[in-house]
Specification:
Residues 11-45 form the 23S rRNA (guanine(745)-N(1))-methyltransferase N-terminal domain. The protein has helices at residues 56-67, 72-87, 107-115, 128-134, 171-177, 195-201, 210-219, 238-246, 258-264, and strands at 20-22, 25-27, 33-35, 42-43, 97-101, 120-125, 141-145, 159-165, 178-189, 223-236, 269-281. By secondary structure, the chain is an alpha/beta fold.
Length: 283
């Protein structure tokens, strides 16, 4: 979609004044302006794209893997939780306003918007290729290139539901964004997530106390509501394994021999999906 449906939520990254769309430009009253890309996203980074931003190759791999619905059970579980959270909002708050930070291709946000048919959503990511893809993931998504750690260009207290799925977490920033009664959904890997691939493919490890630390850091700013664990198993061929490994942070830590290592596993391989879905509320 055009960015117009969510433009009233966006703020200038330089002066924090409200933004509006004029022709192909996004402007603030102070005079700062940002070009609206022909693909429909806007870049509100104030500096260069960070070096750790997802590359075009990573986004293509993620689009291929998620597009095959290997994580559909996870997406549906998130949508169930999101719909329940939004159902609890006061009717006078009007159309639900959603956001996903580190949204990548927009796959999860699009699934949630399919479920919550009157909502609009902002997808933010530091990767330009990711936002280019997210901008066309759903008719009610507005995509913004922005850095979670630098302060998101979204107005205080206007987001009814915020999602952070396998992405960086900035608790005080999330608390700033949430409207009264707003909810945050955080998805993190469990101890057995992709365990069959970690050692043979040299994947990143998962800290044993990850969930405890998440609860502690989030609880300083938001009220814990509930958390659930989702576990299931995939059976993946070699091209699917390569896409899985190269679509996320592991891509920064694997070498060009990844295809050779995958073939050595003699696919198809059974792989565990193990994730925690945690929900927090604005205080």
């Amino acid at each position: 979609m055009s960015l117009s449906a969510v433009a009233d939520l966006l703020t200038c990254p330089n002066c924090h004044r409200p933004l509006s769309i004029m022709d192909r430009t996004v402007r603030c009253p102070t005079g700062h302006s940002f070009d609206l890309a022909r693909q429909g996203y806007v870049n509100l980074l104030t500096g260069r794209q960070p070096a750790n931003a997802d590359s075009p190759e990573m986004i293509t791999a993620r689009d291929r893997f998620l597009g095959a619905d290997h994580y559909r059970a996870l997406a549906d579980a998130i949508a169930d939780r999101a719909a329940a959270a939004v159902d609890g909002l006061p009717a006078e708050q009007g159309r639900p306003r959603l956001a996903e930070t580190g949204a990548g291709t927009g796959y999860y946000l699009a699934t949630v918007l399919d479920r919550i048919t009157d909502a609009t959503g902002i997808a933010t990511d530091i990767s330009v290729p990711a936002c280019r893809r997210a901008a066309r993931a759903h008719a009610r998504i507005g995509a913004v290139v922005a850095d979670t750690w630098a302060g998101l260009p979204i107005a205080d207290g206007h987001i009814d539901l915020l999602m952070v799925i396998f992405a960086p977490r900035n608790p005080p920033e999330f608390a700033r964004l949430l409207a009264p009664g707003g909810r945050l959904i955080v998805v993190t890997p469990g101890p057995d997530h992709l365990r069959q691939l970690r050692e043979p493919l040299g994947l990143l490890g998962i800290e044993a106390d990850k969930q405890d630390r998440l609860q502690a850091t989030m609880s300083a700013h938001l009220e814990p509501v509930q958390r659930d664990r989702l576990r299931y198993r995939l059976r993946l061929a070699d091209d699917e394994l390569i896409a899985l490994v190269t679509m996320g942070p592991n891509a920064h830590h694997t070498d060009e021999r990844i295809a050779e290592r995958v073939r050595a596993l003699q696919p198809p391989v059974e792989v565990d999906v193990d994730v925690w879905i945690s929900e927090f509320a604005q205080r």
